[in-house]
Automatic annotation (TrEMBL):
InterPro entries: Bulb-type_lectin_dom, Bulb-type_lectin_dom_sf, FG-GAP, Integrin_alpha_N
Source organism, top-level taxon: Bacteria
Pfam families: FG-GAP_3 (PF13517)
Higher taxonomy: Bacteria, Bacillati, Actinomycetota, Actinomycetes, Kitasatosporales
PANTHER family: PROPROTEIN CONVERTASE P
The keyword Signal is assigned to this record: yes
Keywords (A to Z) from UniProt: Signal
Residues of the Bulb-type lectin domain: 1-91
Coiled-coil positions: none
Keyword Signal applies: yes
Protein known as: FG-GAP-like repeat-containing protein
Amino acid sequence: MQSDGNFVVYKADGTTPVWSTKTNTPYSYAVLHPRGVLVLYNASGQSLWTSGSQSRPDYNGDGYTDVVTRDANGELWIYPGTGGSGTGTLGTRYFAGNGWWRDHWTRLHTADLNNDGYTDIVARNHLGDLYLYPGTGRTGTETLGNPVLIGTGWNAYDLGFGDMNGDGRTDVIGRDGSGNLWVYPHQGGTGTQSLGSRFSIGVGWGAADWTTLRFADLDNDHRTDVLAHRNDGKLYLYPNTGKGGSSTLDSPSVVGVAWWNNEWTPYAADLNSDGAAEQVGLTKTGELYDFVGSDRFLIGTGWVTYDVVL
């Protein structure tokens, strides 16, 4: 709040204004949602910016990172974060729903895709239809709301989610079969009007060389980076430059070694709920580890039977 009573929202640099009450956009407005999430809307009710798009996966709204799993019976379970560490990081799981069969729902992702500050599930079915199951902030079978179709034809992509263009909204990132990396920017709408026209952020990302791609702010500059797992067992960090388009990603640095294929599945998440994302690894024998600094901490065992959504 400025001395003249003008309320101004700034970018992470602290100097570039995003919106103010003296805006030149007629009838735009700001809403402070539950959990302190501030969302800016235009006159049509489309979100222009939100403070919640980079929130950690937190389904019950307690501020700690939760882990979603799917078992072989198609049941969805949530392991709530506790704020603890090591094997005390996650609490007792609770049931969130059934009917999530692997042969029907081929991919599940966690993201705040509707930018309301609640963590959602984004699910792709075997036909390539992409659905948003909005988070409600509640628990149990009320964790997720009714599904909303986002689009069709998504079987051609490996998907990820994050704010790649720095506008405060969660975008969809897709790697196609030719190794091209595309961003479908969120344009503030809902349903099939959620995403705008795609733009390229790189080529040469073929799955034969880059087995896994994760998207998170790993260098704490408030931009979504790419954590890439190469077939030589190394993890590379591609920082987001904020420049957009083919200049979105900067030169990589090696941030991990000995992440051998078929031995480890890497993730990028704030599993210890300290506000900064880190590397998380699941071994082929079902051990879940959190990598913080130069240390790693065992979170739990027996995860081999689950699809982990983190």
